[in-house]
Write a structure and sequence with these properties.
This protein is of the alpha/beta class. It has a domain at about 75-245 and about 320-375: Alpha/Beta hydrolase fold, catalytic domain (Rossmann fold), CATH 3.40.50.1820. It has 9 helices and 7 strands, in the order H-H-H-E-H-E-E-H-E-H-E-H-E-H-E-H. The chain has helices at about 5-25, 35-45, 55-60, 80-95, 145-155, 175-190, 210-225, 275-295, 350-360, and strands spanning about 75-80, 115-120, 130, 160-165, 205-210, 235-240, 340. The protein has a 7-stranded mixed sheet with strand order 1-2-4-3-5-6-7, with helices on both faces. Strand 6, helix 8 (about 275-295) and strand 7 form a beta-alpha-beta unit. Helix 1 crosses helix 2 (about 35-45), helix 4 packs across helix 6 and helix 6 (about 175-190) crosses helix 7 (about 210-225). The longest helix is centred in the first third of the chain and has 20 residues, at about 5-25.
Length: about 375
């Protein structure tokens, strides 16, 4: 992992303290070895970046780069904007019922195109993995995700494509989903500039961690709902699928010394004033005014208006959209095989377990309907 002096300097005392506690008090869990104990301590230090201007936070995350081992071949690409345009067309049609609670600027992009990274051990015509990186929808890149994508390339002898998804608050929901759809369309229907033939969806596996795991579920739901070809299956790691924070484990005091995620409502930290934060407050105010004027009830619940907005990713009134909080989807049926993994001591444990049960047995595990349809009206009732 390549790190600069700015990152390393504050980390030294943290790691020294963690090392001392490991040998004097023992790790929080008996199963933790020293390497894992220090890794968790290191990850916790990342929260110091939350006080930085949001642009600096995102650049700091870019510095966490996993080096390319000698057996992995990596190729950087920039996708033609046509893939995003096609994605926008699909989203406009299927999100029309939610438009009153969405930031209207989600269709705009000024990043020079959707970038991504191909990784493979060899050019074998095997499974292709589409990997969606985590980062709480506000940071992270394909290069951060190499710890996972390279393993897929090695262990599954697969080609892995990992796109760099747009961040909030600059690009709010559904911008990251738009990029995820665009990346999938790039694989199954590439243009001549791509340099490869269309990949059969039955040879594609989706994967992602944390917010990337959210996007895998959201992408699966969207492909199903839009009538687009589904992939062969998915491998999802510790997905963040409930942005309402309604599950017990997200608030568990017992996990304060174990999981590195904080126990708090939302991830609203905007950091020090900056051009991005100033623009965000303007757009958030405009969206709040639109919601107050339109008074949408399609995904509403009284509790959503009892607290101020607590996500940079979307307004409270959008939290129950199934592509925002997949756990709240009226049905997770009719999806293809899903392997969802989560640790017993993770804050995202309960929502990961419930969404898995909902997918496996959609009739038995139904939630209160905050969305547009209830389960009985859903055409997707078959177990995943």
């Amino acid at each position: 992992m390549e790190l600069d002096f700015f990152f390393l300097l504050p980390v030294i005392p943290v790691l020294s303290s963690a090392l001392f506690k490991y040998y004097t008090e023992g790790p929080p869990k008996k199963s933790w070895d020293l390497k894992f104990h220090l890794a968790i301590a290191l990850i916790r230090t990342n929260y110091r970046f939350m006080k930085l201007p949001v642009e600096q936070l995102q650049k700091a995350a870019d510095k966490l780069i996993i080096k390319v081992p000698s057996n992995i071949t990596v190729k950087d690409v920039i996708l033609d904007e046509e893939y995003r345009r096609k994605s926008i067309t699909h989203l406009e049609k299927n999100l029309k019922q939610y438009e009153d609670v969405l930031d209207e600027k989600w269709k705009e992009s000024n990043d020079g195109g959707l970038r991504g990274e191909w990784a493979h051990v060899n050019e074998a015509d095997n499974v292709v993995v589409l990997y969606l990186h985590g980062g709480a929808f506000r940071a992270g890149t394909s290069k951060n995700a190499r710890i996972f994508s390279f393993k897929f390339a090695e262990l599954a002898n697969s080609r892995v494509f990992a796109p760099n998804l747009r961040f909030s608050p600059q690009n709010q929901f559904p911008a990251a989903l738009c990029d995820s759809i665009a990346a999938y369309l790039y694989l199954i229907n590439p243009g001549p500039e791509a340099g490869f033939d269309p990949i059969n969806p039955k040879k594609i596996v989706l994967s992602g961690d944390s917010s990337g795991g959210n996007l895998v579920f959201a992408l699966l739901l969207f492909l199903r709902d839009a009538g687009l070809p589904l992939p062969a299956g998915s491998v999802i790691l510790s997905p963040w699928t409930d942005l309402t924070h309604s599950m017990p484990s997200i608030w568990s005091a017992e996990l304060n010394k174990i999981d590195f995620l904080p126990s708090k409502l939302g991830f609203y930290d905007i950091g020090a004033p900056s051009p991005a934060s100033e623009e965000y407050f303007i757009t958030a105010k405009a969206l709040a005014d639109k919601i107050a004027l339109k008074k949408p009830t399609i995904v509403s619940h009284p509790s959503f208006t009892e607290v101020p907005r607590f996500h940079l990713y979307c307004a409270n009134e959008a939290l129950a959209i199934p592509y925002v909080s997949p756990m709240l989807a009226e049905s997770l049926g009719n999806l293809l095989p899903i392997l969802c993994q989560v640790g017993a001591d993770e804050r995202l444990r309960d929502e990961s377990i419930l969404i898995s049960y909902k997918a496996a047995n959609p009739r038995e595990y139904q939630l209160p309907s905050y969305a547009t349809k209830n389960f009985e009206k859903s055409p997707f009732k078959n177990p995943t």
